[in-house]
Design goal:
By secondary structure, the chain is α/β, with parallel strands linked by helices. It is globular. The longest helix is centred in the first third of the chain and has 18 residues. The chain contains ten helices and 14 strands. It folds into two domains: 129 residues, Luciferase, Domain 3 (Luciferase, domain 3, Roll); 134 residues, Rossmann fold (3-Layer(aba) Sandwich). The termini are far apart. The strands form two sheets. Strands 1, 4, 5, 6, 7, 8, 9, 10, 11, 12, 13 and 14 form a twelve-stranded mixed beta sheet that branches.
Length: 322
């Protein structure tokens, strides 16, 4: 499996991605007993393209152990559980997560060594077993700066850290859950030069807002030109980040496909809204092919989030959606 692991992060073409996706499908269809049974029930084996691959409903992570049993479990991540039962991602090789989030972060947000990272994630810290906290912990360590760390919603302390970082000629990146960022925005703080990454969710603390309204309030209150967002979840070992237009970019080993709402085996064209299927090749030892409850649309290699299916769980690490 070493060659496949190595090849995941060296993909540089659609051809490479398709080839490796089919190889990983074959491996998981044999060694992941839950996925193997799912494929058998559908009677859809031997895919020729990635659009022929069956996608496992994300809800299976709540009810089954989704793993290949190739190695011992090194880490267990759990969802926020805002909607009830918590999903579990049994990670057999945590090194794959490290590579995934660090390469993606460096490519899309810059080098942590040149930054100060401030985290406003109180609910994730208190619940534990969060993949987001694990990622932010490690990114904070990479900054090698004592200013970086977790902060409560304390305007004075955050303002002090922000100004100190600017005095050291560091870029400031703030990861924040939606309600904590809104609380901060209402204090009148000026974070004009910071990159704000909203990680989603009111967690029952505030009234739910549409993404557009949330970002407008944060832009106004924090005095920043735009708000970025992270698209990630405990069931994935990869993330996408949005720019100021709400357009998400994914790493080369992650791909978004948009299925028809009423027919999960057909896909819509670019620009049309449907259900999001995620291929995350970093999920080598769990399942790389996941059908989510998110709605979105693609444009070439980019995608937008449009909402969620009715009656689906509110997800902790997802972008707050309308």
């Amino acid at each position: 499996m070493f060659d496949i692991e190595k090849n995941i992060y060296e993909i540089n073409s659609e051809k490479d991605f398709e080839k490796l996706s089919l190889e990983i499908y074959k491996f998981q269809s044999i060694h992941n007993s839950v996925y193997k049974s799912f494929i058998k029930q559908l009677n859809r084996s031997n895919p020729k393209t990635i659009k022929d691959i069956p996608f496992l409903p994300i809800s299976f992570f709540k009810t089954h152990n989704i793993r290949t049993n190739t190695f011992e479990i090194e880490q267990t991540f759990k969802s926020s559980g805002t909607g009830g039962d918590r999903s579990r991602h049994l990670v057999e090789k945590i090194e794959l997560y490290h590579k995934s989030f660090e390469i993606t972060y460096r490519n899309q947000l810059g080098n942590p060594e040149e930054q100060v990272i401030i985290a406003l994630l109180p609910n994730y810290v208190s619940q534990g077993e969060s993949s987001l906290i694990y990622m932010v912990d490690n990114l904070i360590k990479l900054t090698k700066n004592p200013i970086s760390g977790y902060y409560l919603e304390n305007k004075i302390e955050i303002e002090k850290a922000y100004n100190q970082a600017l005095n050291e000629n560091k870029k400031v990146v703030i990861f924040g859950v939606s309600y904590a960022l809104l609380d901060l925005a209402e204090t009148g703080i000026d974070l004009e030069k910071a990159i704000i990454i909203e990680t989603g969710g009111m967690k029952g603390r505030r009234k739910e807002l549409t993404k557009e309204k949330l970002h407008n309030e944060l832009i106004k209150g924090l005095k920043v030109p735009y708000i970025s967002s992270e698209y990630g979840m405990c069931e994935l070992l990869s993330q996408s980040y949005s720019n100021k237009d709400g357009i998400f970019e994914s790493p080369t080993w992650m791909k978004i496909l948009v299925r028809e709402v009423n027919d999960p085996f057909n896909y819509v064209k670019d620009g049309k809204t449907g259900g999001i299927n995620v291929i995350d090749l970093a999920n080598l030892y769990s399942c790389s092919f996941i059908s989510t409850q998110d709605l979105g649309k693609t444009n070439a290699s980019q995608f937008q989030l449009m909402g969620r299916f009715d009656n689906s769980d509110i997800r902790g690490c997802n972008l707050l959606l309308s």
